[in-house]
Amino acid sequence: MVARLRSAGIVFADEEAALLVEDAKTPADLDAMVESRCTGRPLEHVLGWAAFAGLRVAVTEGVFVPRRRCEHLAHEAAALAGPGAVVVDLCCGTGAVGLYVAHAVPGIELHAVDVDPAACRCARDNLAGRGRVHQGDLFAPLPASLRERVDVLVANVPYVPTSQLPLLPAEARVHESRLALEGGADGLDVLRRLAGQTGQWLRRGGHLLVETSAAQAREALTVLASSGLVPRVVRSEELSATVVHGQRPG
Known about the structure:
The chain has 250 residues and is of the alpha/beta class.
């Protein structure tokens, strides 16, 4: 089995084989899972779950797989949220970031939003009993009662420049929704739209946290500043992750 995975170009064949063996219910099931992985299907879609910040997060076919670097975004959000805080997870995908914050900070009011129906179905499974999931574009589906009440707004927005989409690994390019990846010409189109509306939803002193690439951070700071937020960059060298943090004055 390991040899089959290696011949298909799987770098961590031993580790993946152990996970597949653990999850398979029968030898036939295992063989089918290995074959599916060898065709290029993401491991997380084969297993039906992803490991994220110590949690097991359900992942269904076609839904964006939460990356390990996104754990930095989740940790920063949890550090800013306290019991009773209103937390909104925009572009939530599986809901992994919101799920982590809910685990780390009991008692928050959690809302998650995604435009992709498949992602919303997945997030509802992951966040059952912990938060509400709304389907729609950015802030549009949120209840009006949340305006100027949000303490922490966290968003893993799509930020891959359109010209770089063909350069992505096939696992992402073929098996994940383009909606979860494409950020326009410079990768910041969705961030610009989001930042322009953030002031209507954050409470005074509230926080916006957005993942970007290191190369985009300078322009992302400008975007947040032009939207009336006080911006800074929070970098994790361990996870090779960049988060842009904007705080509403007040």
